[in-house]
Amino acid sequence: NAGVMQNPRHLVRRRGQEARLRCSPMKGHSHVYWYRQLPEEGLKFMVYLQKENIIDESGMPKERFSAEFPKEGPSILRIQQVVRGDSAAYFCASSPDRQGGNEKLFFGSGTQLSVL
Amino acid sequence: DQQVKQNSPSLSVQEGRISILNCDYTNSMFDYFLWYKKYPAEGPTFLISISSIKDKNEDGRFTVFLNKSAKHLSLHIVPSQPGDSAVYFCAARDSNYQLIWGAGTKLIIKP
Predict the structure, then answer these.
(1) CB atoms B9 and A40 under 8 Å
(2) Which has fewest Cβ within 10 Å: A19, B27, B55, B70?
(3) What confidence tens digit (pLDDT) does each residue in A41-81 have?
């Protein structure tokens, strides 16, 4: 499967636990984006990363959320001390160049995070 | 502050007829607009796009129209097919290269 791979598909956490969401971009893509979708809402940009660099994290909450895209391995979105309001679908997308315009984003199937 | 609005949460269309999905925006600096389609339990997939310097772009059954003076764009699907049933998202690119997304319109094609 050469598409964007996200895992797990579903993640259940209790309040206060940590959530780790993984994303492997398409082969050849070095740009990764994380989005969050709350029920009945559109996708909200969270963070844009290239290998080993965070380019734009303007959509990330200042506390508890962090993201990385190491030289080797998948991109990780980490949520510490989860709260019920973190329950959402988290989508990862990748592109061969910066998003928008002629550069289409290729999305993974998402991780549905449920906080009990 | 919703910069991109899709005011119809859902739309039902007869198979074979035209589907028209609408999107309004407030930021005149948006320079590129895209439509994505999303099936349940899948990520969005790119459908069609249009630059702000154009007013129409066509790809098979899909046509996107842009009215810059009205800050309005629409997606036309003709003829509509059962496989078109999905949620359609409108997105606009801002000067920081970020995509701003609408809330989506659920399209239901009736047989």
Answers:
(1) yes
(2) B70
(3) 888 999 999 988 998 898 999 999 999 999 889 999 999 99
